[in-house]
Every structure is written in C-alpha cells, then in structure tokens.
Specification:
In chain A, 39% of the residues lie in helices and 18% in strands. Chain A has 333 residues and is an alpha/beta fold. The first copy, chain A, has a six-stranded parallel sheet with strand order 2-1-3-4-5-11, with helices on both faces. A four-stranded parallel sheet of chain A has the order 7-6-8-9, with helices on both faces. A two-stranded antiparallel ribbon of chain A has the order 10-12. In chain A, helix 5 packs parallel to helix 11.
Amino acid sequence: MATIADVASAAGVSRSTVSGVLNGNWDICSQETRIRVLDCALKTGYQRSNAALVLSTGRTNVVAIGCERPDDPHPARMLAAANDLAQSMGFDVILIPLGKHQDVTMYLSQRRADVVMVAKAISLAEDLLDHISAPHQIVIAAGPRAGDTPRRILCSYWHDQTGIRCVLEHLVSLGHTRIAYLAGTRAGMRMTYFQEAAAVFGAEGIALTTEDEDDKMVAGAEMARRTLDMRPRPSALFARTDAIALGALHAVQEAGLRVPEDISIAGYYDFAYSRYLSPSLTSVYTPFTKCALAVLTEALQALKRDPVVSPEPRAIEFPTELRVRGSTGPAPV
Amino acid sequence: MATIADVASAAGVSRSTVSGVLNGNWDICSQETRIRVLDCALKTGYQRSNAALVLSTGRTNVVAIGCERPDDPHPARMLAAANDLAQSMGFDVILIPLGKHQDVTMYLSQRRADVVMVAKAISLAEDLLDHISAPHQIVIAAGPRAGDTPRRILCSYWHDQTGIRCVLEHLVSLGHTRIAYLAGTRAGMRMTYFQEAAAVFGAEGIALTTEDEDDKMVAGAEMARRTLDMRPRPSALFARTDAIALGALHAVQEAGLRVPEDISIAGYYDFAYSRYLSPSLTSVYTPFTKCALAVLTEALQALKRDPVVSPEPRAIEFPTELRVRGSTGPAPV
DNA sequence: CTGTTAGCGCATTCAC
DNA sequence: GTGAATGCGCTAACAG
C-alpha cells in the first residue's frame, strides 16, 4: 500500500502538502502543485489508512447502536434506516448487545465509537454519559419512554402508556369489558400500563404470561388458547406484539371462533405484514424509526461541525397511532 | 485516559512488560510483577486504545457484511445471528450496501475490515479477492448459488434452482397445469429457474412482474389480481417471497376465492410468520443463516490462529426444504 | 525476565 | 507556499 509519504515523494512535495490537498484545503498550495499531487495520489493508488486517521484524530466514524432482538421486524426496520443514514454521512454502524452494562460502556471508554445510541427504554441511556472518554463523543437514545425522561442527553421517544390507552379505549368503546393482555415472557411496564388503562376505562384486565417465547407465535397461540377456557371468556385479546397477536389469531381461528365476531384481537407495533392478515390486524404504530433517525441525524450533523458542539439535551416526543382494522369489532352480546 | 505508559511507570516496569501481561503472555515476567501490573492497570483505569491497536497490528476486528434489504425477515435473521457470533468472538459487524462495487472493495483496500462477507448471490464475491491489501484479510460468501461457483474463496450456498423445482414438482403433482410466478420488480435468475422448472414438469409458466415493490404485499396483491382476470385462470400462484405471497393471499381471499380450494399459493424463504397465516403458507426454507454462520465461523477461527491461515477455498452446499402447508392443494377440476 | 528502540500512517504544529 | 518535526498509543524485535 502506498502511504502519504510515497505520494509526497512522487510529487516532489512534503507530506503535509499532500495531506492538505487531499483534505480539500484549497489555500495551501498552488494550483499546479495541487494537480500534481492529485495525479500522483491516483497513480500510486494511494488509499488513506483508516487506522492512522483514527489514531491521529481520535475520531472513529462509528455509531454504536444498542438494540435488542435486531431481527424483530420493528427494530430491523429502524436499524436498516439508521444504517443507511449513517453510511450516507460516512459513518459505520455496529450493533452491540444491550445485556451487560460493560459491553456498552466499552465503546465509549475505549473510544470505539463517536456516537452511542440506545435503542430501547430511553431511561437507560443517561448513565452512559459518565463513560465518555473523548470530548466529541455523543450519547443519544430512542425508544419507548418508561420512567423518567433523561434530561442530560438528546433523546426521542413515544409513550407506550398512550399507545396502550388508545387500544383499551377503542376496545371498551366497542363494548368489551373483559380484556386479556398477552404479555409473553416480558411482563414489564407495558403490562402495568395495561392494568392502569383497563382500570381507567372500567374494563376487567386479565394479564397472561408464558415461560418461553422463543417463537412468539407459539407463545401467542398458547396464551390465546388459555383465554378460550376462561369463564366468562374475555371478548378481546390485546397482544404485546403483532407476532404474538398473529399466533393468537391463528389459535382462535383454529378453535373455530370468528375474529372479530366472537373475539377481537389487537396487536402492538404494527408490523408491515399486519394489515394483510385475515382479518387485518388492529395495531398501534410506534415511531421507532422516526425517533432513531431524528436523534441520529442531529448527532451526526454535530460531529460534522468543527468544533463539535454536542446536540442540545432534550426529549422529543413522537406520537403513537392506533390503526383500527378488521380484527377488532363490537363485543358479542 | 491512562495510557500504557502510565501503567508502566506506576508499576515501575516498562511498557512492553505491561503489554505482555495485558495480552496474557504468561511467561514474560514474574508472578509478583504481573500482579503489580494488573493492579496498577486497574487503579489507573487503563483502557487500551483500539485505534492504536489497529494501527499497530493492522487488524481491525471488524467483519463487513454486504447485504441487501437488511430489514427483510430473511436477511435480518441472518444478520442478527452473524452479529451474535462475531461479537462473541470479539469482532464488530458493519453492514455495507452492495450497490456500488467501490463501496465494498474499500473495506478491503483501506484495511477497514478483516473479513468481508458477501451475503447475496455468491458469484459476486470472488472479484473482491483482488482488492485484498493485507495478508490476513479474508473474503467469504453466503447466499444463493447463481451461475458459477467461486473456486478461490470459501463460500456456502443453496440452490434456488432446486428450491424452485421442488415447488413446481409439488404443484404439478397436485394437478396444477397453469402456474403464475409473481416476481415483483426483480426478475432475476429465479424467474429463469421458474420457467425451466415449469417446462421440465410440463406446466405452463406465466411470469408476472411489477414496476414497484416498495411494499411487497401491495405488489403481491396487485400481481395476484392480474392473474384472476386471466382466462384460463392460473390455478396456482408462486411468489418470489413470502411477503409477496401474503399480499397475493390477501387479494385472492378479498376477491372471494378460497385458498387452496380455488387457488393454491406458495411462497419462498419461509418467513417466521408464514406458517401462522390462514391458511398457513406452503414455502421453501432457504438456509441463509446456516450458510452465513458456517463460513463466518471458519473465517473468524482462522483469524484467531497465529499466523492466520486463510480458510481452504471451497463451496459448501446446504439444502433447501419444501414446507408443504395449507395454502396449496389439489387443482380445481 | 526486563527495558529500550523503532515503526504503524496520519494530522498538526511550527519554522522556513 | 512549503517542509521538517512531533505526537497519537500500541506492538514487536531487540539488547541487556
């Protein structure tokens, strides 16, 4: 590989001249020198070394995204969009597990990333600030709001609480009074919100969980079947995820019941396929991709500025959106 | 940030001793020195600089994966698995667009990745060998086999030709004689295989394409509707992707026809949700994840060895698998 | 076993 | 305008 020194000697100039020309420093040399340098760079097949650049500048041009289940439809779409954006601005995206705290902080403390974005419950992100080891590093977050909103970082979020309320309001307005929540293994804040919302709208909320949800459809089917045996039977099922809702839909139909005539089903996240199911699935759109792109855009722009000014800490809310479709209908009398 | 020199002076030893200890070089110093060094490293909060490591060793510990549509279920699952594997072995994964040739080669020529894996038609990968710029860099490929099999790299593949034949054989054995292929915008090798297979099994193959498939379900629905107007009408639809099949299923049912009694539908890739559709979708499982993990494992193991010996170039085939479900049935008489 | 030295390739001062 | 010198933090080859 040709180094900057090779280009310099080929062009008969110094390395700093080559460096200046290649970095678009227009007033560093004469026009002829510039052309000669560019020409020699081309001829020698010069490629600047990323490693040396990183060591010298301290900037990695890497965005680390902490995200769970990156192959679920909802995160996958967000990640693809974030990757496109980052690539277009000259950054690489790496995906880091959000399990161990240290795995995430490492990318800050070891200066392995310029930006760390937490794509999960946004309250987790603020602690990361303590691990910043270079002044230009930026921590952002995008995801559902749970608990307190961070005040020291830029973040964007949606309210799961609002999304879940909308579903319950919708179901109750259709006359449903016994509503089951199919939570799967992860009985977190959303289950609490469900119970709250059920109380607010005067419905009886029944939460179901499972031991195992490796296959979310299987888990959904299993939980749905359990509701069918209940007396009185819940007239509406609300699933933590569209995948769970699909499993439930399958099980209900297999049991010979009609959706929504006998039982209504609602999902969450509004996967791309959900509207094409039979019946099409009522679900809540959550703006994961919008949230991520909003904060990521701002962070990357900040890094392009010289000197870097960290984005102003604040929390941006994006609305959720209830999408009523064919899987929910009036409660049977 | 503490550097290796800080640790060295704190421990009263030289930098190479610290380096040796931290790299697990057990026979480089006495037990007491080791402990003292480790202690000082902890106390000073030493974190090794990734940038300096990369510059010094030439190794980036980065795997670049070239992949299209990373948010489609099939690639998304593969990417998540590949990322898990790489992370567990200390590598970061970055996702690069496969569009421009230069975008991919850059990661080799600029030494930005130790491994480049092409996760697409495997014939594309071999050319990348010419852009290797460090002896340890490895190029691998995983994806459908189309055209010649690379002979100079390690790759793994499945035969789309076989997968598609299985579908046609299945449909013909059910009595279907007019079979439509819903190709979407990408009328590539698979469409050719379809025509071939139709000929082999004595069926009439009708290929449909669309201008736009931003939403694959919409595209599938649109193509399916077109087949409904044909006279005689195809009795079976074979979609390029399960997402297209889902759109087709939706459109067919919306038109008041029954699946599979009136029309059979088959998909490709066997998405996780496909078996839970109503009716459950007949599809072909293609071993993308298996292929990727197989070659990636070998590449990463090779990089852990010292000195690095590139994996033996060869092509590993994984079988496709026809999964017959409820969406295909006997042709109507 | 330990310490010294010399790169890795670039950007960024400074003198000229 | 230009070139020489220095630092980024580490590894590795060498000499004690």
